[in-house]
Amino acid sequence: MNIKTLLKFTLVFTFAVILMGAYTRLSDAGLGCPDWPGCYGHIGVPSDSAALAKVEENFPNQTVEPKKAWLEMIHRYIAGALGLLVLTILIVCLKRADTPKKLPIFISALILFQAALGMWTVTMKLMPIIVMGHLIGGFSLFSLLLLLYLRTKPLRIPGGDAYARKLAPLAMVSMLVLILQIILGGWTSSNYAALACTTLPICEGNWMDNLAFAKAFSPFQGDHPSFEFGVLEYPARMTIHVTHRIWGIITAACLCWLAFKLLKAQSSVMRKSAWLLFALVVIQVGLGISNIVMHLPLGIAVSHNGGAALLLLTVIFINYALWRKA
Asked: For a surface tag, which of 48, 318, 320, 321 has the fewest beta carbons within 10 Å of its beta carbon?
């Protein structure tokens, strides 16, 4: 298989893994299997009487929930398949003289760390800092695969005219703002704070008097049998949600400003990227509002995660085009 074709397929597959991970998390199936890498000591979800008897013996006071368990195992299966794809990319890149070497090695190391985070997510019972790290790792993998794909293209990405290149610092700032918003989104989700505020534009009640930043953003939240459904009190969850929402407004404004400025570029690549960026921002804002108004429907919540991933790739592409030498 051509390396570019392999990378394209892997990018699409990584996006599917990100969506499946979000679906699993938002379906409260993150602990559908309490062990790792199997499920109650099995390769698949135990269902026959003998297997269930063994589960009762080895996992007392726990009940197999087939739907949640299968969601978790399917997520693991496709994540494992992604690992094999990354390994294939590494082998191909090391064999070919015309491909980068350091980046695929780093990507391979990252996916091994992702596997460790996946294990810790289960063994540490959905500790928020681990869950958020696992989500950020998935987005990082997606981004690095795009960079590797761009670096294997035979022609350089057009950087555009002198006007467009002057926007490179704005593009970099926009990317950093977006990354912080994605991290805040991961922290909101891992702390089950998505519905801490259910009104627009910011939050209901006298929310400003109840902000609790120290507790909201402490990476360590004490010892608990499980962090499923969150352990923080309402003021801390509300603070997380409000911070994510306010920074989301800042992020949308920053990205729209970047898109508006890029529309004046001579390069058609930059103008098309600007329109794509603007469209994705509008869709992402609409999904975020829908999550609040409709109280976090599963399909829209998963799409919100996917939209963030696509936004990140678009901004990375813009930065690559503007910063790369002509």
From this structure: 48
